[in-house]
Queue: 3 jobs
Job 1
Amino acid sequence: MKNSLRVHAALFIVAVIYAANYSLSKDVMPHYMGPFGIVTLRILGAALFFALVSRLVAPKDRIRGRADNIRAILCGIIGIGGNQLLFFSGLNFTSPINASLLQTIAPIVVVVASAVLLGEKITLLRVLGIVLGGIGAATVILSRTAGNIVYPNATLGNIFILLNATAFGVYLVLVTPLMRKYHPFTVLARIFLVGAFVAVPFGWRGVLAADYSSFPLYIWAEIVYMIVCLTILAYLLNNWALKYASPALLGVYIYLQPILAVLIAVSLGKDHFTGARALQAALIFGGVFLVSRKPKAAPAPADDAIPLEPVQD
């Protein structure tokens, strides 16, 4: 029970950290630094931190075996480098609330991918959920306004956020076995090292081109927040929680982010929550709810009945 409370507390803190980032990042980019520059600073800072700490707390722990090493490389490419480049590129073009709403579409994408790649069953209820969520996501993707603010490249930004949400969902599935087998710092040190190799070629120019002398104190504070809280603390808490919780539970907390993001964005005057946004949220949440419902298991056959092929769920 005590450990369960800690897991929920950790995941709630992560949700708050991510929710605040939707608004705070808009202060930094694109005026002070571009999205790729921010991502590079985040990943390099976290890579150095986790490499140092892993040597102190788990000096003899190593990721071993070809399969685990390939999995760690994929986690670094998909969950660190690709995930963060897509997220900040998307957030640079769209509004905080739109970005937070699209984050919740990941479970629907996972169900569709499972049906296509693994042949998993899609029931009529799940089809309805996919349609509802798809309509909600499409209306968000095509939306270019937020209150009085017009985002000319919002469609492209929303697509990037959708790809980011998909990448994060795949990352959670990939990284779970590693977190349960090795020390969290060992895994994080490796995947952030891989992520650095992905991000630096895209962002080194942005890091060098920034005029740091013009940064006001609050911009420095927000950059430190993105490196320390958003990257190091959030990934650490998320991956610690994966030792005791399933990726599905982490997915549930993703649904909390838009609610918190709306409260933060509106209170800071960064965005506006309208009736249209409420309808979009209802469609997406309703779709995710229906997709998340598993088909009922088929009743066990009677002893004298002809056995049926098992239904894959």
Job 2
Amino acid sequence: MIQNSELILNPDGSVYHLNLLPEHIAHDIIFVGDQNRVEKITQFFDSIEYSTQKREFKTQTGIYKGKRISVMSTGIGPDNIDIVVNELDALVNIDLKTREPKENLTSLNIIRIGTSGSLQADIPVDSFVMSKFGLGLDNMLRSYLIDEVSNQEIENAFVSQTNWDIRKGRPYAIACSEKLEKLIESNKIFKGITATAGGFYGPQGRVLRLNIQDEELNSKMDSFKFEDNRITNLEMETAAIYGLSALLGHNALSLNAIIANRASGTFSEDPYKAVDELITYTLNKLAAK
């Protein structure tokens, strides 16, 4: 039995942070960062059956072309992903009344839809990027036993090629779900490694008033390569989503609409159009599943 202090429930029996009961979520779930983006996706739904919000965690569940889908905002950062994925797993794989794990476990399909800037000159604005791997620079997942799901060859190559200061913690690399990769991929989608930072400023190489540990890290990431995989973009959630999903037995995939290209200095003339196209492309793939 899982103690009350370990799995915290609200008075109505819902999980503490997400404010959800098991019947409130579908098995196909789309993650967004910003709570205001939830309705940018559910505006395409035929109907919405449930909606709730607590703090930055907003959830709407509805029907798109006959498919039941949930859309959820996670907020920013790996620490929020730790909350969201663990509580989603509790909703489907723990009996919230007896507080015991279920014998028959459920695998959720989790797809993150975001926006990002490309690090590579040949990945143009308005294109889509699929994260073949998430490369965690944040340390959150190191609180768990991850050796069985992490790719240590990529980790070793990254540490060596970037002269990574191990005092910041060892990076971790996790692959996306092969099932969702096959469902979503097309010849129009670029694939690569998405680096996940634990912060927005120093951890992503931005300098305001504080000096950072490695001023050359971004350029090192631009040139990093492992076999046919490059680092395509840098954000704050993907590796954590991949790691927790792999550990808990869920399928996870991260997609980004590229609205800027840092190498060429270009920005999309209509970023909203690019995002809407990625949303409808993903929804149609899920609905056809």
Job 3
Amino acid sequence: MKFSVFTASTPDWTPPEAAAQLAAQGWDGVEWRITDQDAADAPGFWAGNRATWPLTGLEERLTEIDAVTRGAGLAYSGIGGYARSFERTDVARLLTATAALGAGRVRVTMPLVKTGDYRDLFAGARKDLEWATAEAARLGVTVLVELHHETITASASAALRLIDGLDPAAVGVIHDLGNLIYEGYEDHRAAFQLLGPYLQHVHVKNVAWHPVATAADGSVAWKADWATLREGQADVGAYLRALREHGYDGWITLEDFSTAVPLPERTRDNLAYLRSLL
């Protein structure tokens, strides 16, 4: 297995700083966050993230992106795109950029369930993916659909239903350990077997649920929050062993959104921990 970091989780670093730090720590690759984001007074995961390349003007930055990445000796585990499946112009731009960079694969986000009737959202996303996978096949790259809470593909079963019958050379699934603690958990081995050739990428982070309030009748309200790899509810070691036993030998991409430990120490320790588990 190869290890990379998704730069949504490294907001304090500029791209050159992220590449230099990750390469020095021994990571194999990087998954760049590409999106037009809101500004922020202080860098954050979702706004003001310094390790993000903007979608606007992306085509003019490709040479710079490649120089930063390969100049540090890093490979691309993929591109962390935020274009929604129905935003075909932006999806096409990301597919073309992924091909130009030789990055192999790019995430396309699925509709949120709160934005409409699930059946309509699902049918629309299927049509969008049929178009996107045809474009991806033409360019020699792969569209990735992430298992993500609050979307139409929270589980492996839902993702398979969405992409079943499409060419697995042009579309695959990101199996995300942490997101499944929020929603969509299925036995990992069963999920890997179910996805078959569509299991093409893995994200690792961890999450824990905490009680936040107790009602007068004694009912407890719970809230999920990001946790370190060791302290969350997901058993990261068992997960990696299950992947290995299944025969998965691709990228493991870290996206640790916990903040108890400073970023350089956090990424360094996470790599050591992941390697120790294997």
